[in-house]
Structure formats: structure tokens, C-alpha cells
Amino acid sequence: MDEAPPSRRRIRQLEVVVAEAVYETPDTTTLVLQAGDDHLDYKPGQFLTIDPHQFEALERFTAFLEDL
């Protein structure tokens, strides 16, 4: 009998605000995010991708990081 593969949840786009930045090491920062009324329920192994190119205000900073 063939079993159907487990269903995958769609990628969810959220608009969030950075509530806090915790500098863990020189190259690691933990961002504490607030998503308004949305509940962010993370499980171990989940991740969030941030595309800095979507923010015009960060364009100069992104170019600096790419030059490192």
C-alpha cells in the first residue's frame, strides 16, 4: 500500500517588528520579533528567512556586508 506523503504547510509571510536584538557573539545576533496579533509558535529546527534587499533603507548596509 502506498502511503501519501505528509502534507507540508505553506510558507507563511509575516510582517514583523524587531522588538529586541541580542548580540550573542561577534557574528551572531538573536532577533526578538513581534508580529502584532499573530502568534509565532516556533519549534526546534524551524527558521526564518529575512531578505534584506526588500528594505530600501538597508541597501547601503547590505552593500557594506557584501564587501566584507
Question: If you had to describe this structure to a student in words, what would you say it looks like?
Answer:
There is one protein chain. The radius of gyration is 17 Å and the shape is extended. It has one helix at 59-67; strands at 17-25, 28-34. The mean pLDDT is 76. The protein has a domain at 43-68. The longest helix has 9 residues, at 59-67. It is α+β, with helices and mostly antiparallel strands. The termini are far apart.
Main beta sheet: strand number and arrangement? 2 strands, antiparallel
Q: What is the succession of H and E elements?
A: EEH
Based on DSSP secondary structure assignment, what is the total number of beta strands? Answer: 2
Distance between the termini: 54 Å
Morphology call? extended
Q: Largest sheet, order of strands side by side? A: 1-2
What is the residue-mean pLDDT, rounded to a whole number? 76
Poorly predicted runs: none
* Helical/strand content category: alpha+beta
The fraction of residues assigned to DSSP E strands is 15-25%
Helical content, roughly?
10-25%
| Rg for CA atoms | 17 Å
Total helical elements? 1
